[in-house]
Design a protein that fits this description.
The chain has about 800 residues and is of the alpha/beta class. Helix content is about 40%, strand content about 15%. The strands form 4 sheets. The protein has a 7-stranded parallel β-sheet with strand order 11-12-10-13-14-9-15, with helices on both faces. Adenosine-5'-diphosphate (ADP) binds near residues 341 and 344.
Length: about 800
Amino acid sequence: MDNIDLTSTLDRVIGGRTAAKLAERIDVRTVGDLLRYYPRKYDQRGKLTDLAELVVGERATVWAKVVTIEERELGNARNRARAGGKRGVSHITNIVIADSHRKLTCTFFNQRHWSKQLRPGADAMFSGKVSLFNGKLQMSSPSVAILDDGRGNGAAIGSGVETAIGSGVETANGQGEKDKGASAIEVIESFPGGVIPVYPLVEGLTQALVQRCIRTVLDVLGDVVDPVPDVLLARHGLVDFGTALRDIHRPRTQEHLNAALRRLRYDEALAIQLVLARRRADARNFPAEPCPRIDGGLLDEFDRNLPFALTVGQQLVGEIIATDLATIHPMNRLLQGEVGSGKTVVALRAMLQVLDSGRQAVMLAPTEVLAGQHARSLREVLGPLGRGGELGAPPEATTITLLTGSLSAAARRKALLAIASGQPGIAVGTHALLSDEVFFGNLGLIVVDEQHRFGVEQRHALRTRHPAGNPPHVLVMTATPIPRTVAMTVYGDLDTSILSELPKGRSPISTTVVPAADKPAWLDRAWERVREEVGKGHQAYVVCPKIGDDESETPDDGSDLESDTFGSAVGSVLGSAGGPGDGAAGQRPPLSVAAVAQELRDGPLAGLRLAVLHGRLPGVEKDQVMRSFAAGNIDVLVATTVIEVGVDVPNASMMVIMDAERFGMSQLHQLRGRVGRGSAPGVCLLVTEGHENAPGRARLAAVAETNDGFALAEADLELRREGDVLGTSQAGRATSLRLLSLLRDKDVIAQARDDAQGLVGDDPEMSQWPGLADMVSAVISADSQDYLDKG
Ligand code: ADP
Ligand code: MG
């Protein structure tokens, strides 16, 4: 066979029938596809498998030692019944195997040869489905490869002893195809260094088949062209591509395997980063209207009226953004900052700079409450300068338009006209801004607040609301800290700035878990504490997972987009049955704003000024409640997560979160960020009926322990199974990210990001590096490239 390279089709190498099978089962068609079908794990020859890792219901292959072999003739009906009543079973062999701690019973029916072939002390590989029988782990008729028969003979030493892969030839579903036992052993034995790859299997594929195909392919594979430039390989000390491919499948030693993994992980990281760098380069090449800083405009006026000094971080990020806005290409910047770090001011200043250039700015907020708050605080800080169009306003005054779903038809029409006119001004709104009827006459800047509440499509949707002229600048902000690697991947098409410092004079938030079921007295104490805070002139939030008693209700009420994100956090719990009073959390329905407010009014908080807030209230009412809470006319606000993001009432010093285990860690962190915004220390109580060792309790403890949003976001990421973040979980796909881990491979991702930036430069087509472009499509399927788009 000549000229076998990565693009050769497999039928030339492993035969048409097998090639067709691989194509059908795992979508593997070329030599390159097969060589990117990486092992799922490796077993070390001679090292026993940890039986504790076995999962009931899954197929597994274990290396173990035989402890006992016991045979039984089933001469009578009673014995047959004991064998599970299997018809036609006359003989049972039970072989107990073990690692150093655990045992596992392998049961064979009518296979009388095992007692002759194996004896205690033998070393063998057993492969089959793990089940539970009488409370014990077992495998029924596994396939067996003997490595050492316990008499000192073993395939390993090539003694020619008959060591067959046993009866039930190993297939993913435990049935079917006869495989040639001897050759399976041969394949196993042929692994140099005793490191044996274990491949992900699907129905109809066997370990031995995949191993054999890979070996055949590697035997005939010619030289492999390395797509990655030599200088990068040298810089990072990476092995060449051909070596990596050989060593990931047939590692000579553990060290060779590690080197191969390192190289191939780098390739995956580089592929992602090349996609993103190309996208950034693309965006940079678009033209944009420059909006340089202009002296004596609205921005200067705003700065003069600012009641505090900007933090160093706010100044620095402000400078960077000001420079971005002044260039002839669109800004695409992500601003991350801890809850309360003061991102809003940064965004407002950017908007004013754009206004000063005679263009429009729009701010997209995830909730009506937040949109209303932004519009209000803008009007406040700008004073008369924000009352454009009103009587007596100075001529240079600008207009601030609020656009939410609950505007009256007339108000809405007026707002849309103002926006379409292209008059410089600020529009603040919710997803209502994304509707098809909204057109901006002269849009210079889009700000997206709390980006994690939106999809990236929405970011794009707004861009297209500006049909004439050049694309606007974009600033997206998020307080939910994005782990660095996610920022470099999912958000990797954006430039990133971080506000890490909080404004001075902030008091720390102390968070405590209140186990309401174990220690009911603590909950009583919590309400007393609320009274004390109110007595000191402060205010409090009580947060519940649900609005009312309506069982059919969706988990969140929040206006607009909230239901999506929140729903995923609690959706699964809500489905569970059980009436109130069942006690255990997760059994009874979640606590609702309506019920909790009623109970507090009638009981522990009687006499205080209580109000409720949730997404199903009419917009006007929401706005009234928020205003009057902000003005200090409400003591306790009982709310859903509608207040999760952005709400800013510095006088509120305490938050009680009911059924806290129903919220995600990042979400709890966001919620508690509503308190401790003024000079009074913030207190957050996480109330749960979950018991000490209920699974949710550890998460609550973690939130109570740290105020570091980044740490919590990383922990959340871990729980979320990072695979989902990149969409790498499509099992069996040949072309997807397989080896890279967002948690483990931070450094590799950072390296690759720098390298990709250098390689792409300002040439999104990468015409200099055609090999790399091919590598990108080989590593990242079209689906995943889309996925990167969706955020
Ligand atoms: P976030 O970053 O969570 O959106 P905000 O923008 O809501 O935070 O700011 C939180 C609070 O801090 C607001 O009341 C804001 O007015 C105030 N703030 C912002 N910057 C400063 C500063 N430099 N000094 C003092 N207070 C500030
Ligand atoms: Mg904010």
